[in-house]
Amino acid sequence: MGHYIELSLFDLALATLLIVIAGMVSLVLHLGITRTLILAAARCVLQLGAIGLVLRQIFGMKNPVLVVSWLLLMLFFAAREATRRSKKRYQGILLDSLLTMTASSLIAGGLVTQVVIRSDPWYDPQYTIPIFGMIFGNSLNGISLGLERLMDYVRGRAQEIELLLAFGATREEALREGAKMAVRTGMIPIINNMTVAGIVSLPGMMTGQIIAGASPIQAVSYQIVIMFMIAASNAIGTMTISRLAGRRLVTNLGIQWI
3-state SS of 79-101? Predict the structure, then answer.
């Protein structure tokens, strides 16, 4: 297939003109986001640059301890971000998010890396870090959306839930509709992405592989695996967080909030 074109620092400097164009649009239209845009672009460069240097060392050493440590770090920040996006909170929300993210990533990511792709060794950073990174990035969106929807349901129907419990319903029965809404909401983004993939948009991983010189058929194959993986992780994640959150929100003392 085609050859891979490496980018130099000069090429990256030229790409900065694209941010300049966006900033000019903000100035001309008086959007008031020019400073925010510049700061975001600077953070993007610094963060991605630092990550690139770290990953180059991890990829070069191929040490399982380093790979697992990096994945745990990504897991923690993803779980924290999932809870920070929620306007409502409860005691133990971060722990629930960590447990949820761990379960969804181990099941979906483990299946893909160890059964579908069969990476060798099992911790090969070339596969494990990007794949688990995609799970974390997409799962946190699904989990935060599902969690927000569940808490809206509990708050909006607090009296109905308490009435059901008073008449002998279990917690799972009282929250059944809310849990279904949470899972449905968390699944919407990936369902929308799968619906338009290939027709309206070319997903990121597929595009990256093609630019890197991979066969389009292989790029498509990997992208299908990734999208199915994300769908599974979102389903597992939203289902798990709805059950964990439900156990904390609805107790014998009533509905708990911070």
Answer: HHHHHHCCCCCCCCHHHHHHHHH
pLDDT at position 2, please? 57
> Are both 222 and 109 inside the same structural domain?
yes
pTM summary value: 0.84
pLDDT tens digits for range 7-23:
888 888 899 999 999 99
CA distance 114 to 128: 10
Judgement on whether residues 81 and 49 belong to the same structural domain of the protein: no
Domain that includes residue 35, residue range:
1-61
251 in the same domain as 196: yes
- The last residue of one of the domains, among 43, 61, 79, is 61
Amino acid, single-letter form, for residue 234: N
Residue whose token pair is 């909006």: 156
pLDDT for residue 253 is more than 60? no
Nearest-angstrom CA–CA distance, 71 and 131:
10
Q: Which long-range contacts (CB under 8 A, 24 or more apart) does 36-43 make?
A: 41/16
- The residues that bridge with 197 in the sheet, in sequence order, are 201
For residue 134, give Cα distances in angstroms to 108, 168, 184, 223, 228.
11, 42, 20, 11, 12
Number of domains in the chain: 2
Tell whether 30 and 90 lie within a shared domain. no
